[in-house]
Amino acid sequence: MRERRSAKERKTRETEIRVELDLDGRGTYEVSTGVAFFDHMLESFAKHALFDLRLAAKGDLAVDAHHTVEDVGIALGEAFRAALGSAEGIRRYASFVLPMAESKVEVAVDVSNRPYLVYRVDLANDRIGGFDVSLVEDFLYAFSQNAGLDLHVELRYGKSPHHVIEAVFKGLARALREAVEIDPRVEGLPSVKGAL
Asked: How far apart are CA 154 and CA 56, in angstroms?
């Protein structure tokens, strides 16, 4: 089996990002975006997906965190798609229900190369420190579009925005970990079309 790893760079007038991703790693990470809570979420994502992730981003944070968070989603999605390669032998589908204190989040994914995002997470409190919780949907949209994921995220219940968003990232990690695992019973692509 070929190594499922990639490196991607993205540079615009607003951001400069470098990503290295290994889908068959051990969950090691080195993340620096300049947005502390976002770093924490990306580290949790790598740890629980068992993906090795090195990510460095510099953005126009004096303006807002939006460009940095969204562009990280684009670059990470591109790295994921490149690392996945042909996708032969993967399980393709997975879902995970993750509890986090008083919160519970369900994440379902189809690694289909037909991107779509359903994001049903409504929170009364939209701040975690200085972090705008609405940026999580922007990140997931950019990531799913560029990774080729049909991604569904639903908050079953919960109040603390920190717990809910952490459950989103960890639930995504666990669902992707299972979806990209090689299933020894699968021959070729997991599709009757012969292509993803």
From this structure: 29
